């Protein structure tokens, strides 16, 4: 199967946001069609932030979020941005979809500590070395491999030396040799797709090193379901 980019990524995610934003982010079949309550949805973000920060603390005991700036790349409606806002001095949520960001703004009780910024296909709109912690969960998997590489490079550009990146992406399907999987969703404004793009672990590890990162650890990740081997990478931006 060859790589492709669907209709504009922004238009695709805008359609999904307008259709059923919470379900497009956490595609639990039992919650399809408006089945998520805001309370249950955002509680998953708090649990995930707790889990990620506990793993970070145990791998890098001297890392402290207090006073730091976090990036939540592909923030959606702020599920994690909000949760990180309770720990970091400031969080910047970046997303390609203006419709996702409008929803994030509308239900953001952490105003002042979280800023939402529209992303773009070619980079992360933040200054070099401006971030202490770059987080991205269930996002890179939705963009083609070449774009994933670009964003991983960007994580290490926006991180200050010694800053940490935590990001997740699937390496392979356990039975199918394809590199791209997708589901189609009919929305009121046209069809939308939820794509899953594979980025093999060995290639991610090489990419991290080439981008100026040092891998701290790699852990198994269950967010793509039992059919996929998916990994969460924790890496540090090398100091000069
Ligand atoms: C499955 S949702 C995850 C949202 C959020 N990370 C969470 O876990 O709640 C994927 C998000 O990635 C965003 N996204 C997709 N492609 C992107 C890109 N190239 N740049 C930034 N965000 C992107 C989508 O708009 C969507 O909000």
Short description:
The protein has six helices and nine strands; from the N terminus they run H-H-E-H-E-H-E-E-H-E-E-E-H-E-E. It has a single domain, classed as Rossmann fold (3-Layer(aba) Sandwich), CATH 3.40.50.
Describe this entry's structure for a reader.
This protein has helices spanning 9-25, 38-59, 79-85, 98-106, 145-158, 201-210; strands at residues 69-73, 90-95, 114-118, 131-136, 159-173, 180-187, 190-197, 213-221, 228-237. By secondary structure, it is an alpha/beta fold. Strand 4 (131-136), helix 5 (145-158) and strand 5 form a beta-alpha-beta unit. The chain starts with 8 loop residues before the first helix and ends with a strand. Bound molecules: S-adenosylmethionine. The site of S-adenosylmethionine (SAM) has 20 residues, from helix 1, helix 3 and strand 2.
Which of globular, elongated, flat, extended, rod-shaped describes the shape? globular
Please tell me how large the radius of gyration is: 17 Å
- Please count the helical segments: 6
Number of strands: 9
Briefly note the structural class of the backbone.
alpha/beta
Uncertain ranges: 1-6
């Amino acid at each position: 199967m060859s790589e492709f980019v669907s209709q504009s990524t922004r238009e695709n995610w805008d359609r999904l946001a307008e259709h059923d934003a919470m379900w497009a982010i956490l595609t639990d079949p039992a919650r399809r069609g408006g089945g998520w309550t805001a309370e249950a949805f955002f509680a998953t973000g708090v649990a995930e932030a707790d889990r990620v920060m506990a793993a970070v603390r145990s791998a890098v005991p001297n890392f402290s979020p207090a006073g730091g700036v976090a990036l939540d790349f592909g923030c959606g409606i702020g599920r994690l941005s909000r949760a990180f806002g309770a720990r970091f001095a400031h969080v910047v949520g970046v997303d390609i979809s203006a419709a996702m960001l409008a929803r994030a703004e509308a239900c953001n009780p952490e105003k002042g500590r979280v800023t939402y910024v529209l992303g773009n296909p070619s980079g992360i709109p933040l200054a070099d070395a401006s971030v202490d912690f770059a987080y991205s969960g269930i996002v890179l998997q939705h963009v083609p491999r070449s774009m994933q590489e670009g964003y991983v490079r960007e994580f290490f550009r926006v991180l200050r030396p010694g800053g940490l990146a935590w990001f997740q992406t699937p390496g392979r399907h356990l039975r199918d040799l394809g590199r791209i999987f997708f589901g189609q969703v009919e929305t009121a404004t046209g069809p939308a797709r939820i794509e899953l793009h594979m980025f093999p672990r060995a290639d991610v590890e090489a990419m991290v090193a080439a981008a100026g990162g040092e891998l701290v650890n790699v852990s198994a990740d269950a967010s793509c379901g039992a059919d996929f081997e998916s990994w969460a990478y924790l890496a540090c931006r090398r100091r000069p």
